[in-house]
Automatic annotation (TrEMBL):
The chain crosses the membrane at residues 233-259, 265-291. GO terms for cellular component: plasma membrane. This is Glycosyltransferase 2-like domain-containing protein. InterPro entries: Glyco_trans_2-like, Glycosyltransferase_2, Nucleotide-diphossugar_trans. SUPFAM superfamilies: Nucleotide-diphospho-sugar transferases (SSF53448). It comes from Candidatus Curtissbacteria bacterium RIFCSPHIGHO2_01_FULL_40_12. Residues 9-171 form the Glycosyltransferase 2-like domain. Keywords: Membrane, Transmembrane, Transmembrane helix.
Length: 323
């Protein structure tokens, strides 16, 4: 029976986080070294930052061989950063920790404890987010809409912060799709899941690369990647409109036979064209979005391309990386 330590891998996606890289490393190392009987590795993924993030990661990797630096060839987006890091981990369990330091690291022992008690997935739930009122309302609205229309259950205000068992990670990696949303895939694969609530802190250093339009694109990815309700609604609305149109025609013919032609045809035609034209345009737009997803999948392009890796671990899971 092997006495080797279980490995906890930390995936830290970064974009323009030069002020936070060292702070993240110190904070996570301080937490994990207090937990006995575990080895660790830190997998920093730089999404082609425009500042000195790459240099900061490189300096850490020189000092600590348990720091893996992954540098992508360009900015492939936040989802690509997460999946690049996950693909290069060696841990028995993996924790995703964003480099903005807004998620409290003191929850990590709780995550590990729940994992040791038999939970395959531990998800952090943000009970409060220190953000502007508008963004808070928009975020809550998004989660509620997504929860209502999605085929899977994703708790309101659940982020990427959490823990995955190695078998869960393998299940996610086995999915062939390129149009990815990590939180959706994590929920879709299932497994025994537990939740830990926390208050998300305000960013202290650096500036978030997320803005309103990025949130819209992220919402699109979740809606069209994990729900067919928009297509279903199109079918139902089309059926109702056809039924109403048929009833309108019958009513119009009865009025015409009984009272002549009291309704001005020009007004009826214009209103009908504008109304049904708008419905058709909306329907075509929704179909177009689903076609876009199909096109992205058929291209079979990789989710990310790696430019360089530092301290890549080629050991199998189960080997003590601290040796």
């Amino acid at each position: 029976m092997s006495n080797r330590k279980k490995i906890i891998s930390f995936v830290i996606p970064c974009f323009n986080e030069e002020e936070n890289v060292l702070q993240v490393y110190r904070e996570l190392k301080n937490v994990i070294t207090k937990i006995k009987n575990y080895a660790y590795e830190f997998v920093f993924v730089d999404n082609r930052s425009l500042d000195n993030t790459r240099k900061e990661i490189r300096d850490l990797a020189k000092k600590d061989k348990n720091v893996v630096g992954i540098f992508l060839s360009r900015n492939f987006g936040p989802e690509a950063s997460v999946h690049a890091g996950l693909d290069k981990t060696n841990g028995d369990a993996v924790i995703i920790y964003e480099a903005d330091l807004q998620d409290p690291s003191h929850l990590i022992p709780q995550f590990i404890d729940r994992w040791e008690k038999g939970f395959d997935v531990v998800v952090g739930i943000r009970t409060k987010i220190e953000d502007s009122l508008i963004m808070t309302l928009l975020r809550k609205t998004y989660y509620k809409i997504f929860k209502a229309i999605s085929d899977i259950y994703i708790p309101v205000n659940s982020g990427s912060y959490g823990l995955l068992d190695r078998k869960v990670l393998r299940a996610i990696q086995s999915l062939p799709e390129k149009y990815r949303m990590f939180r959706g895939l994590r929920a879709w694969v299932g497994f025994k899941t537990d939740y830990v609530e926390y208050k998300r802190q305000k960013r202290k250093r650096g500036k978030s690369s997320y803005n309103f339009f990025r949130y819209i694109k992220h919402a699109e990815r979740s809606f069209f990647g994990f729900s067919y309700l928009p297509l279903d609604l199109m079918v139902y609305i089309s059926f109702i409109l056809v039924l109403l149109s048929f009833l309108f025609i019958i009513a119009y013919l009865l009025i015409f036979l009984l009272f002549g032609n009291p309704i001005k045809a020009a007004v009826t035609i214009v209103v009908s064209i504008v109304f049904f034209g708008g419905i058709q345009l909306l329907a075509i737009s929704i179909i177009g979005k689903y076609i876009q997803v199909i096109v992205e999948e058929t291209k079979s392009r990789p989710v990310y391309i790696i430019d360089e890796i530092l301290n890549e671990k080629k050991k199998s899971v189960g080997e003590d990386l601290t040796k």
